[in-house]
Amino acid sequence: xxxxxxxxxxxxxxxxxxxxxxxxxxxxxxxxxxxxxxxxxxxxxxxxxxxxxxxxxxxxxxxxxxxxxxxxxxxxxxxxxxxxxxxxxxxxxxxxxxxxxxxxxxxxxxxxxxxxxxxxxxxxxxxxxxxxxxxxxxxxxxxxxxxxxxxxxxxxxxxxxxxxxxxxxxxxxxxxxxxxxxxxxxxxxxxxxxxxxxxxxxxxxxxxxxxxxxxxxxxxxxxxxxxxxxxxxxxxxxxxxxxxxxxxxxxxxxxxxxxxxxxxxxxxxxxxxxxxxxxxxxxxxxxxxxxxxxxxxxxxxxxxxxxxxxxxxxxxxxxxxxxxxxxxxxxxxx
Length: 334
Prior knowledge:
The protein is globular. 1% of the residues lie in helices and 43% in strands. The protein has a single domain (2-333), classed as TolB, C-terminal domain (Neuraminidase, 6 Propeller), CATH 2.120.10.30. 43% of the residues are buried. By secondary structure, the chain is mostly beta strands. The chain has one helix spanning 23-27; strands at 2-5, 8-13, 29-30, 35-36, 42-45, 51-55, 61-66, 74-80, 83-90, 111-116, 121-125, 142-145, 156-160, 166-170, 176-180, 193-199, 206-211, 216-220, 226-230, 238-244, 247-252, 256-260, 266-270, 285-286, 292-293, 306-311, 317-321, 323-324, 328-333. The longest helix is centred in the N-terminal third of the chain and has 5 residues, at 23-27. Strands 1-2-29-27-26 form a 5-stranded antiparallel β-sheet, with no helix packed on it. It has a 4-stranded antiparallel β-sheet with strand order 4-5-6-7, with no helix packed on it. A 4-stranded antiparallel β-sheet has the order 8-9-10-11, with no helix packed on it.
Protein backbone atom coordinates (compact mmCIF):
# COMPACT_ATOMS: atom_id res chain seq x y z
CA UNK A 1 0.00 0.00 0.00
CA UNK A 2 1.05 3.61 -0.45
CA UNK A 3 1.37 6.24 2.25
CA UNK A 4 1.97 9.97 1.95
CA UNK A 5 0.97 12.13 -0.99
CA UNK A 6 2.41 14.05 -3.92
CA UNK A 7 6.20 14.16 -3.97
CA UNK A 8 6.22 12.45 -0.56
CA UNK A 9 4.49 9.21 -1.59
CA UNK A 10 6.00 5.88 -0.54
CA UNK A 11 5.20 2.20 -0.97
CA UNK A 12 4.93 0.56 2.46
CA UNK A 13 6.80 -2.77 2.65
CA UNK A 14 6.96 -4.38 6.08
CA UNK A 15 7.89 -7.95 5.13
CA UNK A 16 10.72 -7.24 2.70
CA UNK A 17 13.66 -8.09 4.99
CA UNK A 18 14.59 -11.78 4.95
CA UNK A 19 16.28 -11.84 8.36
CA UNK A 20 16.85 -15.51 9.22
CA UNK A 21 14.18 -16.71 11.63
CA UNK A 22 15.19 -17.88 15.10
CA UNK A 23 13.94 -17.82 18.68
CA UNK A 24 16.28 -14.92 19.43
CA UNK A 25 14.88 -12.94 16.51
CA UNK A 26 11.30 -13.48 17.69
CA UNK A 27 12.07 -12.84 21.37
CA UNK A 28 14.80 -10.21 21.21
CA UNK A 29 13.92 -6.57 21.84
CA UNK A 30 15.06 -4.65 18.75
CA UNK A 31 16.76 -1.36 19.59
CA UNK A 32 19.22 -0.68 16.81
CA UNK A 33 20.27 1.59 13.97
CA UNK A 34 20.46 1.26 10.19
CA UNK A 35 22.96 2.40 7.55
CA UNK A 36 23.12 2.12 3.77
CA UNK A 37 26.36 1.59 1.84
CA UNK A 38 27.27 3.34 -1.38
CA UNK A 39 26.33 0.21 -3.31
CA UNK A 40 22.89 0.16 -1.70
CA UNK A 41 23.36 -2.65 0.81
CA UNK A 42 21.60 -2.20 4.14
CA UNK A 43 23.53 -2.75 7.37
CA UNK A 44 21.68 -3.31 10.62
CA UNK A 45 21.75 -5.40 13.80
CA UNK A 46 19.97 -8.55 14.86
CA UNK A 47 17.07 -8.09 17.32
CA UNK A 48 18.45 -10.64 19.76
CA UNK A 49 21.94 -11.81 18.79
CA UNK A 50 25.28 -9.99 18.85
CA UNK A 51 25.32 -9.98 15.08
CA UNK A 52 25.58 -7.36 12.37
CA UNK A 53 23.43 -8.09 9.32
CA UNK A 54 23.84 -7.10 5.67
CA UNK A 55 20.84 -7.15 3.33
CA UNK A 56 20.44 -6.14 -0.30
CA UNK A 57 17.83 -3.64 -1.42
CA UNK A 58 15.34 -6.44 -2.02
CA UNK A 59 15.76 -7.56 1.58
CA UNK A 60 17.69 -10.74 0.79
CA UNK A 61 20.20 -11.81 3.42
CA UNK A 62 23.77 -11.24 2.18
CA UNK A 63 26.02 -11.99 5.15
CA UNK A 64 26.60 -11.33 8.84
CA UNK A 65 29.36 -11.06 11.39
CA UNK A 66 29.60 -11.38 15.15
CA UNK A 67 30.37 -8.36 17.33
CA UNK A 68 31.10 -7.74 21.00
CA UNK A 69 28.25 -5.28 21.49
CA UNK A 70 25.25 -5.12 23.77
CA UNK A 71 23.46 -3.34 20.92
CA UNK A 72 24.39 -1.50 17.73
CA UNK A 73 22.14 1.34 18.85
CA UNK A 74 23.49 3.94 16.44
CA UNK A 75 25.15 2.89 13.16
CA UNK A 76 26.94 5.56 11.11
CA UNK A 77 28.63 4.79 7.79
CA UNK A 78 31.63 6.86 6.70
CA UNK A 79 33.98 6.74 3.74
CA UNK A 80 37.69 7.28 4.27
CA UNK A 81 39.93 7.26 1.21
CA UNK A 82 37.40 5.20 -0.72
CA UNK A 83 36.92 2.63 2.05
CA UNK A 84 33.56 2.40 3.83
CA UNK A 85 33.61 1.95 7.59
CA UNK A 86 31.16 2.00 10.47
CA UNK A 87 31.02 3.97 13.67
CA UNK A 88 28.80 2.21 16.19
CA UNK A 89 27.40 3.64 19.41
CA UNK A 90 26.67 0.80 21.82
CA UNK A 91 24.50 1.99 24.70
CA UNK A 92 25.91 -0.87 26.75
CA UNK A 93 22.91 -2.87 27.91
CA UNK A 94 19.92 -4.67 26.44
CA UNK A 95 16.52 -5.71 27.73
CA UNK A 96 16.48 -9.48 28.07
CA UNK A 97 13.49 -11.85 27.83
CA UNK A 98 14.91 -14.13 30.53
CA UNK A 99 14.46 -11.40 33.15
CA UNK A 100 11.07 -10.14 32.03
CA UNK A 101 12.50 -7.67 29.52
CA UNK A 102 14.16 -5.65 32.23
CA UNK A 103 17.72 -4.43 31.92
CA UNK A 104 20.38 -6.61 33.56
CA UNK A 105 21.57 -5.46 36.97
CA UNK A 106 24.54 -3.13 37.11
CA UNK A 107 25.58 -0.19 34.99
CA UNK A 108 25.87 0.02 31.24
CA UNK A 109 29.09 -0.91 29.43
CA UNK A 110 28.72 1.86 26.90
CA UNK A 111 31.26 2.06 24.09
CA UNK A 112 31.92 3.64 20.71
CA UNK A 113 33.73 1.54 18.11
CA UNK A 114 34.94 2.02 14.57
CA UNK A 115 35.03 -1.10 12.41
CA UNK A 116 35.38 -2.13 8.80
CA UNK A 117 32.66 -3.97 6.92
CA UNK A 118 34.23 -7.29 7.83
CA UNK A 119 33.81 -6.61 11.54
CA UNK A 120 37.42 -5.78 12.37
CA UNK A 121 37.60 -3.15 15.11
CA UNK A 122 39.81 -0.28 13.93
CA UNK A 123 39.44 2.21 16.78
CA UNK A 124 37.48 3.03 19.89
CA UNK A 125 36.72 6.23 21.76
CA UNK A 126 37.23 6.43 25.49
CA UNK A 127 34.64 7.94 27.78
CA UNK A 128 35.55 11.57 28.52
CA UNK A 129 37.25 12.17 31.84
CA UNK A 130 34.56 14.48 33.20
CA UNK A 131 33.24 14.89 36.73
CA UNK A 132 29.75 13.94 35.59
CA UNK A 133 31.00 10.39 34.99
CA UNK A 134 32.48 9.87 38.44
CA UNK A 135 29.19 8.20 39.36
CA UNK A 136 26.95 8.89 36.37
CA UNK A 137 26.32 6.26 33.70
CA UNK A 138 27.86 6.54 30.23
CA UNK A 139 25.47 5.19 27.59
CA UNK A 140 26.23 6.51 24.08
CA UNK A 141 23.50 6.38 21.48
CA UNK A 142 24.79 7.93 18.22
CA UNK A 143 27.84 9.10 16.29
CA UNK A 144 28.32 11.81 13.65
CA UNK A 145 31.56 12.41 11.75
CA UNK A 146 32.76 15.60 10.05
CA UNK A 147 34.13 13.61 7.14
CA UNK A 148 37.20 14.79 5.29
CA UNK A 149 35.70 13.71 1.96
CA UNK A 150 33.17 16.53 2.47
CA UNK A 151 35.85 19.06 3.42
CA UNK A 152 35.63 18.36 7.13
CA UNK A 153 38.41 17.90 9.67
CA UNK A 154 37.54 14.34 10.74
CA UNK A 155 36.06 15.29 14.12
CA UNK A 156 33.83 12.64 15.70
CA UNK A 157 30.79 13.66 17.73
CA UNK A 158 29.18 11.25 20.21
CA UNK A 159 25.75 11.61 21.80
CA UNK A 160 25.51 10.21 25.33
CA UNK A 161 21.75 10.06 25.01
CA UNK A 162 20.96 7.48 27.68
CA UNK A 163 23.64 8.54 30.12
CA UNK A 164 24.29 12.14 31.10
CA UNK A 165 22.67 13.84 28.06
CA UNK A 166 25.96 15.30 26.84
CA UNK A 167 27.28 15.47 23.28
CA UNK A 168 31.05 15.01 23.07
CA UNK A 169 33.49 16.17 20.42
CA UNK A 170 36.68 14.26 19.57
CA UNK A 171 39.37 14.98 17.01
CA UNK A 172 40.10 12.39 14.33
CA UNK A 173 42.83 10.88 16.51
CA UNK A 174 40.26 10.17 19.22
CA UNK A 175 41.22 12.92 21.66
CA UNK A 176 38.34 14.50 23.54
CA UNK A 177 38.10 18.20 22.67
CA UNK A 178 34.94 19.50 24.30
CA UNK A 179 31.35 18.72 25.21
CA UNK A 180 28.02 20.48 24.79
CA UNK A 181 24.92 20.11 26.96
CA UNK A 182 22.27 22.37 25.41
CA UNK A 183 22.98 25.06 27.97
CA UNK A 184 25.08 26.98 25.45
CA UNK A 185 22.02 28.57 23.86
CA UNK A 186 18.51 29.72 24.52
CA UNK A 187 16.83 26.31 24.24
CA UNK A 188 18.33 24.82 27.39
CA UNK A 189 19.68 21.54 28.66
CA UNK A 190 19.44 18.43 26.48
CA UNK A 191 17.15 15.68 27.74
CA UNK A 192 18.11 12.49 25.88
CA UNK A 193 20.09 13.74 22.86
CA UNK A 194 19.25 10.48 21.15
CA UNK A 195 20.62 10.99 17.64
CA UNK A 196 22.99 13.40 15.92
CA UNK A 197 24.02 14.01 12.34
CA UNK A 198 25.87 16.59 10.26
CA UNK A 199 23.56 18.36 7.85
CA UNK A 200 25.13 19.56 4.60
CA UNK A 201 22.04 20.82 2.79
CA UNK A 202 22.77 24.48 3.51
CA UNK A 203 25.68 26.80 2.79
CA UNK A 204 27.71 25.34 5.66
CA UNK A 205 27.64 22.09 7.66
CA UNK A 206 25.72 22.03 10.93
CA UNK A 207 25.34 19.56 13.78
CA UNK A 208 21.73 18.50 14.43
CA UNK A 209 20.87 17.08 17.85
CA UNK A 210 17.62 15.14 18.33
CA UNK A 211 16.75 16.43 21.80
CA UNK A 212 14.18 13.67 22.15
CA UNK A 213 12.61 14.04 25.58
CA UNK A 214 12.30 17.79 24.96
CA UNK A 215 10.56 17.21 21.62
CA UNK A 216 12.84 19.40 19.52
CA UNK A 217 16.01 19.56 17.43
CA UNK A 218 18.89 21.79 18.51
CA UNK A 219 21.36 22.97 15.87
CA UNK A 220 25.04 23.85 16.40
CA UNK A 221 27.96 24.79 14.23
CA UNK A 222 30.89 22.41 14.10
CA UNK A 223 32.78 24.35 16.75
CA UNK A 224 29.98 23.62 19.20
CA UNK A 225 28.32 27.03 19.07
CA UNK A 226 24.55 27.05 19.43
CA UNK A 227 22.64 28.32 16.38
CA UNK A 228 18.91 27.65 16.69
CA UNK A 229 16.16 25.23 17.64
CA UNK A 230 13.26 23.93 15.60
CA UNK A 231 10.40 21.45 15.80
CA UNK A 232 8.96 22.30 19.19
CA UNK A 233 5.58 22.91 17.57
CA UNK A 234 5.43 19.72 15.47
CA UNK A 235 7.81 17.13 16.97
CA UNK A 236 7.21 14.88 19.96
CA UNK A 237 10.08 12.37 20.11
CA UNK A 238 12.79 12.92 17.45
CA UNK A 239 14.95 9.82 17.44
CA UNK A 240 16.85 9.61 14.14
CA UNK A 241 17.65 11.48 10.93
CA UNK A 242 17.96 10.80 7.23
CA UNK A 243 18.28 13.17 4.27
CA UNK A 244 17.39 12.67 0.63
CA UNK A 245 18.15 15.64 -1.58
CA UNK A 246 16.62 18.60 0.25
CA UNK A 247 14.18 16.67 2.44
CA UNK A 248 14.96 15.93 6.08
CA UNK A 249 13.27 12.82 7.49
CA UNK A 250 13.00 12.47 11.27
CA UNK A 251 12.08 9.20 12.95
CA UNK A 252 9.81 9.85 15.91
CA UNK A 253 9.58 7.11 18.50
CA UNK A 254 5.93 7.92 19.07
CA UNK A 255 4.80 6.18 15.93
CA UNK A 256 5.52 8.34 12.90
CA UNK A 257 8.06 9.85 10.54
CA UNK A 258 8.18 13.62 10.13
CA UNK A 259 9.33 15.26 6.91
CA UNK A 260 10.80 18.77 6.73
CA UNK A 261 11.90 20.95 3.82
CA UNK A 262 15.31 22.57 3.27
CA UNK A 263 14.44 25.27 5.79
CA UNK A 264 13.40 22.64 8.39
CA UNK A 265 9.78 23.65 8.01
CA UNK A 266 7.16 20.94 8.51
CA UNK A 267 5.98 19.12 5.37
CA UNK A 268 3.99 16.09 6.53
CA UNK A 269 3.81 13.02 8.75
CA UNK A 270 4.12 9.46 7.43
CA UNK A 271 2.49 6.43 9.06
CA UNK A 272 1.24 8.44 12.03
CA UNK A 273 -0.24 6.21 14.74
CA UNK A 274 0.32 8.00 18.04
CA UNK A 275 -2.69 6.36 19.72
CA UNK A 276 -0.81 3.04 19.84
CA UNK A 277 1.64 4.67 22.26
CA UNK A 278 -1.11 4.88 24.87
CA UNK A 279 -1.53 1.08 25.00
CA UNK A 280 -0.25 -0.45 28.23
CA UNK A 281 3.17 -1.95 27.64
CA UNK A 282 3.89 0.03 24.46
CA UNK A 283 5.88 -0.52 22.28
CA UNK A 284 4.86 -4.03 23.23
CA UNK A 285 1.76 -5.30 25.09
CA UNK A 286 1.11 -6.78 28.52
CA UNK A 287 -0.89 -9.91 29.23
CA UNK A 288 -3.52 -10.21 31.97
CA UNK A 289 -0.82 -10.94 34.56
CA UNK A 290 1.13 -7.82 33.61
CA UNK A 291 3.88 -9.69 31.79
CA UNK A 292 5.47 -7.86 28.85
CA UNK A 293 4.71 -9.67 25.58
CA UNK A 294 5.12 -8.95 21.87
CA UNK A 295 2.60 -6.50 20.50
CA UNK A 296 -0.43 -7.70 18.58
CA UNK A 297 -1.18 -4.21 17.27
CA UNK A 298 1.18 -3.86 14.29
CA UNK A 299 -0.66 -2.46 11.29
CA UNK A 300 0.35 -2.08 7.66
CA UNK A 301 0.81 1.58 6.84
CA UNK A 302 1.07 2.66 10.48
CA UNK A 303 4.18 2.84 12.60
CA UNK A 304 4.59 1.56 16.14
CA UNK A 305 7.96 2.88 17.32
CA UNK A 306 10.44 4.14 14.66
CA UNK A 307 14.00 4.12 15.98
CA UNK A 308 16.73 3.48 13.40
CA UNK A 309 16.44 5.30 10.05
CA UNK A 310 18.40 5.51 6.80
CA UNK A 311 17.84 6.57 3.19
CA UNK A 312 19.42 5.10 0.07
CA UNK A 313 20.49 7.15 -2.98
CA UNK A 314 17.11 6.56 -4.64
CA UNK A 315 15.24 8.03 -1.66
CA UNK A 316 13.91 4.74 -0.28
CA UNK A 317 13.66 4.81 3.51
CA UNK A 318 14.56 2.01 5.93
CA UNK A 319 12.99 2.14 9.38
CA UNK A 320 13.90 -0.21 12.24
CA UNK A 321 11.32 -0.15 15.04
CA UNK A 322 11.85 -0.54 18.78
CA UNK A 323 9.88 -3.56 20.04
CA UNK A 324 10.06 -7.26 20.82
CA UNK A 325 10.94 -9.14 17.63
CA UNK A 326 11.49 -5.92 15.74
CA UNK A 327 9.86 -4.69 12.57
CA UNK A 328 11.94 -3.46 9.67
CA UNK A 329 9.90 -1.33 7.28
CA UNK A 330 11.02 -0.27 3.81
CA UNK A 331 9.31 2.77 2.33
CA UNK A 332 9.90 2.57 -1.41
CA UNK A 333 10.00 5.97 -3.13
CA UNK A 334 7.00 6.05 -5.45
